């Protein structure tokens, strides 16, 4: 399955990311990993929140995962086929798509966001084909955050087939990314929950109020405690993305 190229948000500098101007007084401050969107997968969060979701049992979903197989250890919510086609820019999904098809689509959306966010940070995805086994904590945190973004946790006690809502990544998923990647924008603009400080993101993210204030694992947000590395993520999946949608890969 091939994806159209995502918006080139990941390659733009994130100066003025928040509407409130919080300029630094530190003359020697230097930006680091200050890209737009500043968080992996942020470009889709509002559309994911507006999508329709249903709860599904683990035995029907987790074995369909490849890229996020080692990051997801919880019951997930599955997006409707219509919303999956819209968010993934993939017209091959139809109203008759199976639960497995939808899970695979969400998994590939996470993989695509991973590739593009690494590119925004100046990293070659070719060099980071197994993020779950990586010694680079920044790369691993990008992988964890895209998986938490595109494969949200299903609420506790939600029955199979029951409609549900999108659950944002937990505070520690967002904070873990900022810390591991040493994100620095020199103006206090990098906030997991800007609304708590009376701030708002600039367009096109002005409606996003921030990630969950809960620390995971927690029933009301998406994110789990780390597990030891297991099987490597699908190299074939990343190779397919790099050769079909990544212009910097020479495809």
Overview features:
two-stranded antiparallel sheet; 5 strands; 251 residues; mainly alpha; 3-stranded antiparallel sheet; disordered N terminus; globular; 7 helices; disordered C terminus
What does this structure look like?
The relative contact order is 0.21. The chain has one domain (8-246). It contains 7 helices and 5 strands; from the N terminus they run E-E-H-E-H-E-H-H-H-E-H-H. Helix 4 (99-120) packs across helix 7 (235-244) and helix 5 runs antiparallel to helix 6 (171-180). It starts with 11 loop residues before the first strand and ends in a 7-residue tail after the last helix. The protein has 251 residues and is mainly α. The chain has helices spanning 42-49, 58-61, 81-88, 99-120, 137-150, 171-180, 235-244, and strands at 12-13, 35-36, 53-55, 77-79, 163-164. The radius of gyration is 17 Å and the shape is globular.
State the gist of this model.
With 251 residues, the protein is mostly helical.
- Our estimate of the beta-strand percent is under 5%
Helix content, binned percent: 25-40%
Biggest sheet: strands side by side, in what order? 4-3-5
Low-confidence region ranges = 1-26, 226-230, 244-251
Distance N terminus to C terminus? 16 Å
Task: Give the H and E element order.
Answer: EEHEHEHHHEHH
Number of domains: 1
What is the helix tally? 7
Average pLDDT = 78
Based on CA inertia axes, which overall geometry fits? globular
Classification by helices and strands:
mainly alpha
- Quaternary arrangement of the chains shown? single chain
Could you tell me the radius of gyration in angstroms? 17 Å
Largest sheet geometry: 3 strands, antiparallel
Task: Tally the beta strands.
Answer: 5
